[in-house]
Amino acid sequence: MKLVVENSRKNGTVKRFDKSWLPILQNHIGALKHAEYGLGITYMDGQRDGMTQMINNSILTNSSYKLRFAQNLTIYLAEIALDAEKFDLEAGKSHWLNDPIWQGARKAIETVLAAEDYLEQYFAGNVLFEPFVTELVRSGLIMQFAAAHGDFLTPAIVAVAEGDYERNLTNTVELFQILLSDPKEGEHNREIAGGWLKKYVPLAVEAAKQLQPIWSQPRVKVGSFADSYASADNRVGNILSQIGLNLPKGVQL
What is the pLDDT of residue 250? Predict the structure, then answer.
């Protein structure tokens, strides 16, 4: 990240960002770092109760990736503030705590953080909240809209988290495939996971839909929230299919 930022500063990259894009970085990427941190803390909490060293290591590694990315966003925005006029580094926290756009995400992450089952935390975070909240913003907003607003810098920072999630998702799918297909306990485990879906799908969907107003704020409309949400919906559906789990009756994405 250091080299990317230093090279962009030499070229005056930030000063050429579209004026409508800077508030997105300030307010909503600033809020995103709190969501990323929240998931990192959730996994940090969950790994303490893992039943095997292999599971613990996977969840702990996932936690470290999330915490590192939250830290990277904090440092990155601080670097942006050096080159952008009137860039408020406290705005992200304010939006996370008070902006209605982010309260669904905050509620969802605080709910899973309070869960007592470490597998419930890992399932809700990687299967539902990551696609519907953090990846939705990273992939559906930043990676789509940034270049059209003269920002080729932020996608380079965010791409790291995109790669991290793909690796962590692979671990998650493998773990729950094993648990849900177990000859002896698989049926019981599917009942438990179905309860998690009933609990967390509404929270994740609500969190995602509350983020919709952000898509109308950039000047150049290169995509719609509906398209980004459809990708997230499809992502979750594919994950559940890989795990071998169906949505319970009455639960909709």
Answer: 78
